[in-house]
Amino acid sequence: MKHFLYLVVLLAACHPKEKEPSIVGKWEYVRMETYNPSEPINLQDSMLNALHESQKGMTFWFGNKIFKATSKRPDGSTEPMGEQHYELAEDRKTVVLNNTGRADDKFPIIELSDSLLKINIFYSPKAYMVFKRMD
């Protein structure tokens, strides 16, 4: 019995940590959300609705230090919006797009799970974008 307890303790100590969700992959825009759940995005507001509609079909792709963004044309084809180097801050709470000739863009990650990426690319104190994993 004593050896069994040692074995259980050893196995518990060797149990791997839970894997943190990865930003690497392809993400598609779903919606905008506010930081205050009691004040949802008002899509009846024509400006907010136009912004939401223009973002439909937008994808972000995070690969091996390369970030790509595309948008969807009315005919359904995709149009490249940009490609550049990126890094994830050590705390995994900020995406840093490495720019040339100007300061880097730093976008706070609100939430990152295996299926959702919530990120503030508006520099807004009120709202952020929600993307779903596509791969």
Explain how this protein is built.
The protein has a single domain (21-133), classed as Lipocalin (Beta Barrel), CATH 2.40.128.280. With 135 residues, the protein is α+β, with helices and mostly antiparallel strands. Strand 5 (94-97) and strand 6 form a beta hairpin. It has an 8-stranded antiparallel barrel with strand order 1-2-3-4-5-6-7-8. The longest helix is centred in the N-terminal third of the chain and has 13 residues, at 2-14. The chain has helices spanning 2-14, 46-55, and strands spanning 25-34, 59-62, 66-72, 78-88, 94-97, 105-112, 116-119, 127-133. Helix content is 17%, strand content 41%.
Which terms summarize this structure?
135 residues; alpha+beta; Lipocalin
